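Table S2 (text version). Query chain:
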Amino acid sequence: MLEQIEAQTRKAVAALCDTAKLRVGDLMVVGCSSSEVLGQQIGTDSNFDTAQAIFHAVESELEMRGIFLAAQCCEHLNRALVVEREVADLLGLEIVNVVPQPKAGGSFATAAYQGFRDAVAVESVKQQAKAGMDIGGTLIGMHLKAVAVPVRLEIDHIGEAILLCARTRPKFVGGERAHYNPDLM
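Corresponding C-alpha cell output:
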C-alpha cells in the first residue's frame, strides 16, 4: 500500500509542478492528513509510516526540480510550517520554537522535520507559496499567494484522501483596455 501511495504522490506532485509552471526557487506548500489517506477521519489515526512515504515522494520530486517545500502542521500548531532553514533565511521568515509530533503538528510535518537537512518551523510563509497540495482537507489556502486558481489533476486521491491542488497567478490590473500576458495566467 505504501508503494501505491508514494507513486500517486509523485505523479500528483509532478503534474502540479508542470501545470503551475513552477520554476527553480518557487515554494510549494503541502498539507497532509495521514488519517484521511488511510480512510479515517482527519486527526483520528495519524500514521507516521504513511506520512513518511508521502514526504519522501514530495521532497524528492521537488528537490529534482529545485522547488522548495513548506510542510504544513495541523491546527494544534496553528498550521505552522516546516521548511529548510535555507528557505526561512531566503524568504525572511520568522522561525518559531516548536518540534512537530504525530499528535501535535501531524505525522506529515513530523516526517518533514525529521527528513529535512536543517529543519525549522515558521509561523507563516507570508503567502509566498506559488502552488499548494491539500491531501485530506488540511486547508492550506492561507499560505498561497493572493490569487489562487484550482488545479484539477488526473489523480484526485492519495490513498483514500481527497486531493485538492491550486496554483497562483498574478493579479489582473488595468481594466477593460488592458492586455494580459498569457504566460502568467
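Notes on Table S2: The beta strands are 27-32, 68-72, 81-84, 95-96, 119-122, 131-135, 148-151, 157-158, 161-168. The mean pLDDT is 95.
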